[in-house]
Amino acid sequence: MLAHWLEKLAERPTDDDLRRVVADALSAEGDERGEYMTLSLKRATSGLSATHQKRLTKLFERHRATWLGPLARVLTDAGRHDGWVVSAERWEHGVPVRLAARLDGSTAGAREWWTIRELWLAPSSAFPTELEHPVTKHLRSVSAFGEAEGFEWSALLTEYLRGIGREHLLHARTEWPDDELRL
Fold first, then answer.
1. Do 78 and 160 share a domain, yes or no?
2. 46 and 108 co-located in one domain
3. How many helices (H) and strands (E) are present in the chain, helices listed first?
4. 132-180-96-55 Cα dihedral, nearest 10 degrees
5. How is residue 76 annotated by DSSP?
6. Does residue 37 contact residue 28 with C-beta atoms inside 8 Å?
7. Would you say 115 and 6 are in contact if contact means Cβ atoms under 8 Å apart?
8. Domain count, the chain
9. Would you write out the chain's pLDDT as a tens digit for each of its 183 residues?
10. Dist. CA 28–CA 133, nearest whole Å
11. Which pLDDT belongs to residue 152?
């Protein structure tokens, strides 16, 4: 059932009414992601009390890795900026929408890809075959970051995306604009 809801959310990423329906359905099944989504939506519209904010944070910290599923294994920090570790991970109302990862093909077909719209790719010794799978159809951009010893990662990724017919996703990234930092 979760895969069905993730696909629906990916198809209508700004539909808060759908998010409420999904949150209620997940809560009815005893999935705490439903409560997390409800609190996230409330925070975005009317704010949260300190108690509810603590609960939201606790739910996220307790379940983040589970909610990411196999994607948690391939996450990486997006690098450093002014001495700070930069994370590209971004969640919107209970689902991840942006990740930085070092892909190796091990997460191809994972249902958790349905909601990811932005992906920052670190150099890898394997091609990111996840990008060939239909569950990544909602991706809107792929950015290369980081350096790889012995090869030009951005150029290699560009050729790979061109080869699978998805070069329109590529956004080369060599530095971190301040408005994109999510610490």
1. yes
2. no
3. 5, 6
4. 170
5. -
6. no
7. yes
8. 2
9. 777 887 888 888 788 999 999 999 999 999 999 999 999 999 888 889 999 999 999 999 999 999 999 999 998 876 555 555 566 788 888 889 889 899 989 999 998 998 899 998 888 878 899 999 998 988 998 988 776 665 677 888 888 899 999 988 887 554 444 434 332
10. 31
11. 79
User: Residue 182 contacts by C-beta under 8 Å, 6 or more apart in sequence?
Assistant: 86, 87, 88, 89, 90
| H or E stretch covering 45 | helix 32-45
Pairing state between β 84-86 and 79-81? antiparallel
**Domain coverage including residue 30:** 2-68
Query: Are 29 and 53 within one domain?
Result: yes
Encoded tokens for 19: 């998010």
Give the count of beta carbons closer than 10 Å to the beta carbon of residue 71: 22
Residues 89 and 44 in one domain: no
